[in-house]
Design a protein that fits this description.
Blueprint lengths: L3 H24 L7 H13 L12 H30 L1
Helix pairs in contact: 1-2, 1-3
């Protein structure tokens, strides 16, 4: 049976994956009118709402990486810290 620490890590990696997919779709100029692309855009905007515009840079590529990459890294780091604490208290 998988422990709660594995579940925490898995959820964080799925959330980070959504953000990474959106970064790729945006940088590859995917059609935002497509339903799947729209879903990833909405989900990524919701997940990264707190970090969008945190830093301002002139290049679109770097702006997307900062706006959506920072929360992806933060979610994984926090999940690993929490999961590590949960694993040691069992």
């Amino acid at each position: 049976m998988r422990g709660i620490d594995s579940v925490i890590r898995t959820v964080a990696h799925v959330l980070a994956g959504i953000l990474i997919v959106w970064i790729a779709l945006d940088l590859l100029d995917a059609n935002r009118g497509n339903t799947v692309v729209g879903w990833f855009h909405s989900a990524a905007d919701w997940l990264a709402g707190w970090s969008i515009g945190l830093f301002s840079v002139s290049q679109h590529t770097f702006q997307v990486l900062l706006d959506y990459g920072i929360p992806a890294v933060v979610y994984v780091l926090i999940a690993n810290l929490v999961a590590g604490r949960v694993a040691t208290t069992r």
